[in-house]
Structure formats: structure tokens, C-alpha cells
Request: fold
Amino acid sequence: MPKALWFAFGFTVALLLLIALLMGPLMNITAGTGPRPVAPADWQPAALDPTPTAE
Reply:
């Protein structure tokens, strides 16, 4: 194989490896394994609220 083909092959493999290494942590974050957003303490759906609100 000519040197240009070897260079292109190596460059492609290195690029794919870099993308794979970058995608690992990104997938972990989007899978919810990281810190999750916390809902406000007073938030509760009306349908699930057991205590009727005094009006």
C-alpha cells in the first residue's frame, strides 16, 4: 500500500478511537448515572397529593 493510504487508514482509526473515548463519558452522563436534577421540595403533582388543599 502507498504511504498515503497507510496515513489515511491510521488517521481514520485514530479519529474513530478518539470519538469512542469521548462518547463513553457522554453516554454515562445522558444515561443518568451522574448527578440528577433535583426537583424543588414543594413540587408535587396535584393528582398524587394526598392532602386536599384548604381553600
